[in-house]
Amino acid sequence: MSTASETVRRFTVHHDGVTIPVTRGGRGRRLVLCLGLNSTQADLDVLAALLRRDHDVVTFDLRGHGLASAADRYSFAGFLGDLTAVLAEPSAPPVLVGYSMGADLAVHYASEHPGGVAGLVLIDGANPVPEPFVTGADLPAFRAMWEDLARQQAARGTARRVLLTGREILDLNVEIDGVRAGILERYRTVGVPVRMIMATSMAGTGDPRAERLNRTWRAGVERLVRECPDVEASWLDADHGLVFTRAPEIARIVRDAVTAL
């Protein structure tokens, strides 16, 4: 009997001047995992392997991430185009599992393609926060943090590297703040069940800024659940890296959510 690992295949999707590497393997209901800014499908190896035991799992790299080619510029619309290209192959509607910005991409795709997805599982993203995360007061600290992150990521192995500059990461985070300011209306048009897995300490712990951001994060989810009855949220005692550090728990919750669809 062949195992799920033996059925994994790799191929590329070409669109909009970029090459997107895709990995697909396993058996069962199709799950498409969409990562967000500064993360690659190689980072998702553990979670993907767990889910392939009983699902047909698709992962891919966004432009400028991992094994994907670089782009002339980076934007939320460009990343959404990458997801749309990966989903272009005709098949039964999949469940989209989005992490961080990938959750926002999943919500936008579902709202723009009625009947195109069977459900959404969103991990620590797509949150209609009541105020922006990147404010003028915090801008210097965020700029320094993301410039340092960009240097580290550029030096990683090819499958895990990220080609974006610190300034591009900063600009995208500002853009994502704007996306989330209007995402509540997107939820109203999704039309499928939504399960959220959120981190209690999304911004970490130990300083007043992190605690403020964590309160803002929770307030956004509480508002969403209150106003959109098709959304169910659960919380894990973790920071924003929960998809990597808590993969077995994430896999269990994803399985439960998919079974309930």
Task: Explain what you see.
- 41% of the residues lie in helices and 19% in strands.
- By secondary structure, it is α/β, with parallel strands linked by helices.
- It has an 8-stranded mixed β-sheet with strand order 1-2-4-3-5-6-7-8, sandwiched between helices.
- Helix 1 runs parallel beside helix 9 and helix 4 packs across helix 5.
- The chain is globular.
- The two termini are 29 Å apart.
The CATH homologous superfamily is named Alpha/Beta hydrolase fold, catalytic domain
Shape: globular
Biggest sheet strand order reads 1-2-4-3-5-6-7-8
Classify the beta-strand content into a percent band.
15-25%
Query: What is the residue-mean pLDDT, rounded to a whole number?
Result: 93
**In total, how many domains does the architecture comprise?**
1
CATH class value: Alpha Beta
Give me the Rg, rounded.
Answer: 17 Å
Cα distance spanning the termini: 29 Å
Number of strands: 8
Identify the CATH architecture. 3-Layer(aba) Sandwich
Helix content: 40-55%
One letter per element, helices H and strands E, the order comes to EEEHEHEHEHHHEHEHH
Q: Report the total helices.
A: 9
Structural class: alpha/beta
> Major beta sheet, specifics?
8 strands, mixed
